[in-house]
Amino acid sequence: MAATAPIRFGTGGWRGLLGSEVTGERLLAVLRGSAAWLARHARGRPVVLGYDGRAAGPAMASIARAVLHEAGLSALESAGPSPTPALSSAVPRRGAAGALVITASHNPAEYQGVKVFGPWGGSVWGDDARWIESAAGAALGRPAPPEGAPAEAVDLVGEYREVLRGELDLGGSPVPVRVAYDAMHGTGAGVLDRVLLEAGVEVTVLRGERAADFHGATPDPRPERIDELRQATRELVSPALGLANDGDADRLAAV
């Protein structure tokens, strides 16, 4: 898609190829449109800010922080790369106005984007998405805001692990389920698998090292991309379960 095309939101936000759809000018415009929408709901509340494990994440989050500051909003920023569910779930838990997440989700490493979550912690769509698109289009061409905006850095991933621990139900089975978990080199690594391990579940981890380039793979757990997980699950002593997350850990496949 050419950089001259109108900015459009898909499921959960905006994304595309870096240097083509996602340029510095267009990123600024999307962030300004999103910040203007969030400011309508803020009433003094902060905006959760975070990014996935892709190489451009920290730099783009720094730009987002400056745009939020420009709009009169404070940032509650996750300390390091984070699963998208850790950020979206923090919105209602922390009483935030919403969230901005720098991620291209399940797309290859050459992509980047922005997800926007409302005060309810869910995706922005419909009329709200069209509102952000319009505001982003009107913001194209404006100069960048000054850098160095303040932010409160918090361990939102640690908080999310506590949420997962509270949701975990092993069913009281005398034979604990065995799990094969494929993190696909994304931000789910060290989150769900760690919670399960700490609960005493036997976990076999695949692609558990985070990598900005996903080691050349597309971090999308479609059936054709999880052959190794299927095989690992077959090799476990029953009862067994295979789980896989995408690059920002908001998609879950089960075997």
Q: Which strand order do you get reading across the main beta sheet?
A: 1-5-4-2-3-6
| Percent helix range | 25-40%
Please compute the radius of gyration using only Cα atoms.
19 Å
- Give me the strand/helix succession: EHEHEHEEHEHEHEHEE
Label this structure with key terms:
255 residues, alpha/beta, six-stranded mixed sheet, single chain, four-stranded mixed sheet
Question: Would you spell out the secondary-structure blueprint of this structure?
Answer:
Blueprint: E1 13-17, H1 24-42, E2 47-51, H2 57-70, E3 75-78, H3 84-94, E4 98-102, E5 111-117, H4 126-139, E6 152-154, H5 156-167, E7 178-182, H6 192-198, E8 202-206, H7 227-235, E9 240-245, E10 252-254
Helix pairs in contact: 1-2, 1-4, 3-5, 5-6
If you had to describe this structure to a student in words, what would you say it looks like?
It is a single chain. The chain is of the alpha/beta class. It contains seven helices and ten strands. The protein has a six-stranded mixed β-sheet, sandwiched between helices. Helix 1 (24-42) packs across helix 4 and helix 3 (84-94) crosses helix 5 (156-167). The longest helix has 19 residues, at 24-42. The chain is globular, with a radius of gyration of 19 Å. The two termini are 35 Å apart.
